[in-house]
């Protein structure tokens, strides 16, 4: 694993955007696996800035997002479909047909998860997967549990995740209780992985996930087994890692 220590959130975002840009420049028709949450917002902002300067071209880029809430319309402001358009897709020249997220409005979980897995395979797999890190070690919406869930699946969100995400909703009752998420194998099959983390509140989980044992109780710990992972974290998030 390559670890880049960033000064702060802005520096982390810029470094991450550099790696994503390099991917797009080297393979203009690449498949980017994308993430939501507050962590990647600065990275997307930087990509938009470079796109506007003429340094990046998304015309052939394809994207697959990690996850989507189950039961939220795309038009809902809290859907990840909306988030991605708001922070990235609306501002760059990506083709709408090349944008993929799980369909949160498909009630048949088995059907939707199979469709999404197949779609990723049909695109030839993910070239570069961007990840954030949940406080409990979740990646995508793979919550801590007894075993690693391999494929795209429907998940009951952990109380801690619901609590963490309530800030985006008017009330905690409005936070969806379920989501569709890529599974651990789906994520691990990405050719390259880029995980970004910011803030002192993530320092304990950064230490546990990347320097502790590999366990499904800390889903991100599986990334220690991937042979092309880059972790970009700011000083605060790296403040508890062993020397
Ligand atoms: C969310 C998302 C994850 C994200 C994580 C951390 O629930 N499903 O993909 O990485 O939680 O979010 P944040 O970056 O806001 O801390």
Secondary structure class reads alpha/beta
SSE string:
EHEHEEHEHEEHEHEHE
Low-confidence stretches: none
N/C terminus separation:
15 Å
Helical content (DSSP H or I, runs of 4+) = 25-40%
Average pLDDT score:
96
Order of strands across the biggest sheet?
1-10-9-6-2-3-5
Tell me the β content: 15-25%
Q: Give the radius of gyration.
A: 17 Å
Q: How many distinct helices? A: 7
Number of distinct beta strands: 10
Outline, from the CA principal axes? globular
Name the bound molecules.
2-amino-2-deoxy-6-O-phosphono-alpha-D-glucopyranose
Q: State the oligomer.
A: single chain
Largest sheet: 7 strands, parallel
Question: Could you characterize what this model shows?
Answer:
This protein is α/β, with parallel strands linked by helices and 243 residues long. The chain is built from seven helices and ten strands. The protein has helices spanning 9-26, 41-52, 80-87, 109-122, 159-165, 184-188, 203-211, and strands spanning 2-6, 31-34, 62-65, 67-69, 99-100, 128-131, 153-156, 178-181, 192-197, 229-234. It has a seven-stranded parallel β-sheet, with helices on one face. It has a three-stranded antiparallel β-sheet with strand order 4-8-7, covered by helices on one side. Helix 7 links the parallel strand 9 (192-197) and strand 10. The longest helix is centred in the first third of the chain and has 18 residues, at 9-26. The radius of gyration is 17 Å and the shape is globular. Bound molecules: 2-amino-2-deoxy-6-O-phosphono-alpha-D-glucopyranose (GLP). Residues 35-39, 66-67, 132-134, 140-141, 161, 165 line the site of 2-amino-2-deoxy-6-O-phosphono-alpha-D-glucopyranose.
């Amino acid at each position: 694993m390559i670890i880049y220590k960033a000064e702060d959130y802005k520096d982390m975002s810029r470094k991450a955007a550099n790696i994503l840009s390099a991917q797009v420049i080297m393979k203009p028709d690449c498949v980017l696996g994308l993430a939501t949450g507050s962590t990647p917002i600065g990275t997307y902002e930087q990509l938009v800035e470079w796109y506007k300067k003429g340094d990046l071209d998304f015309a052939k880029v394809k994207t697959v997002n990690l996850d989507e809430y189950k039961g939220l319309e795309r038009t809902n402001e809290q859907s990840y479909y909306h988030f991605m358009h708001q922070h990235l897709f609306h501002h760059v020249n990506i083709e709408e047909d090349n944008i993929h997220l799980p369909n949160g409005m498909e009630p048949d979980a088995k059907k939707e998860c199979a469709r999404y897995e197949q779609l990723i395979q049909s695109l030839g797999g993910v070239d570069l997967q961007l990840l954030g890190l949940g406080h409990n070690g979740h990646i995508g919406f793979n919550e801590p549990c007894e075993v690693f869930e391999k494929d795209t699946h429907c998940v009951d969100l952990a109380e801690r995740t619901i609590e963490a995400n309530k800030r985006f909703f008017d009330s905690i009752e409005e936070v969806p209780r379920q989501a569709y998420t890529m599974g651990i194998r789906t994520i691990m099959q990405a050719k390259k992985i880029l995980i970004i983390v910011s803030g002192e509140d993530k320092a304990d989980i950064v230490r546990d996930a990347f320097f502790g044992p590999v366990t499904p109780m800390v889903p991100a710990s599986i990334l220690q087994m991937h042979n092309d992972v880059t972790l970009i974290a700011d000083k605060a998030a790296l403040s508890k890692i062993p020397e």
